[in-house]
Each structure stands twice: as C-alpha cells, then as structure tokens.
Amino acid sequence: LASETDSPADGYGTGNGLYVRNSSDIAIENNVFYNWYRAANFANSTGLDISSNEIHSIRSDGMDFVQVQDVIIRSNYIHDFITSPETGDHPDFIQFWSAGATEPSVNITIDSNILIVGEGGVAQTIFMRNEAVDTGLYGMEMYYKNVAITNNYILASDYHGITIGEVD
C-alpha cells in the first residue's frame, strides 16, 4: 500500500503485481493478486492463459491488455476493489485498449469468470475500448477480432457491465 506520499494514494494499492510484455506462451494460473494499483498488465504478447486467479483489493485495473493475440481469460474471481475517491482512477476488472498499438488484439476468450463489485468501489467489469479506431487513427484493420465473452457472472452497479468497441 502507498504510504508517506502525501497524496490521496496513501493507504491504497500501489505498483503493478505482474507485467508481461513481448512474450509468448504464458500461463498465469492459481494466483492471488491484492493491494496493487494494477494487478496484471499484458502487452504485445501471444498465447496468454490467465485462469483460476483471484484478484481483489486493487486500486485501479485488474487486468489490462493491449496488442495481444490468442488470449484465454477463464474461471477467475475478480472482486471488491478498494478505490481512492480522490485519485481520479476509474477501475476496470478486465480491460482491453488500443491506444499506441500498431496491431489489433485478436482471438480473445473471456469465459466463466466471476466479477463482483461487492463491498468495493464502483468498477467497470469487462471494458474493451478501441481508441485506435474511435479516434480516427485507424480503420477496420485495427478492429478487435474473434472475441467470445461467455458464461461470466457479473454483479455490479456501474453502467459498463460489458462494453466492446469496434470488433469483428
């Protein structure tokens, strides 16, 4: 937890639990991530299997993905984020984005996860913004491709339960 920073972040999660970049064939299974700013970040990687993890007490995002291929996010329990109302963070349990990407994220499966806001602060659950397209920098070549979101249990109060931008 952040401390002695003289900022609204004091007492809340800080740092990243895991950062995977420029990698392939990675399995992240049966872990617990808590008390981080962000639990896990994945960039420019292929062959990701993120399964049966628990993520809670996070200040910002549970899992962030940019420019990834062949991704399975399955049977994770993501819940009870502890957000600071004064830092300006807007937490997402599972987030894909494309700002700065040169290739789209493709072959994505989000299946059988349990996503519960619980006693935590407001959080978006599955959010896939496509900034590369919605800002006009790219066209259909940057659409997310082959996305399956199935059998997830979502209990939340935010206006973004599942949001997906520009996908084929």
Characterization of the model:
- There is one protein chain.
- With 168 residues, the chain is mostly beta strands.
- Helices cover 2% and strands 47% of the residues.
- The strands form two sheets. Strands 1, 2, 4, 6, 8, 9, 11, 12 and 14 form a nine-stranded parallel beta sheet that branches. Strands 3-5-7-10-13 form a five-stranded parallel beta sheet, with no helix packed on it.
- The longest helix is centred in the C-terminal third of the chain and has 4 residues.
Count of alpha/pi helices: 1
- Our estimate of the beta-strand percent is over 45%
The residue fraction in helices comes out at: under 10%
Topology as H/E string?
A: EEEEEEEEEEEHEEE
Can you give the mean pLDDT? 94
Structural class: mainly beta
In terms of per-residue confidence, which ranges show pLDDT below 50 for 5 or more consecutive residues?
none
- Count the beta strands: 14
Main beta-sheet strand count, sense and barrel state: 9 strands, parallel
Tell me the overall shape: globular
> What is the terminal separation in angstroms?
40 Å
Radius of gyration: 15 Å
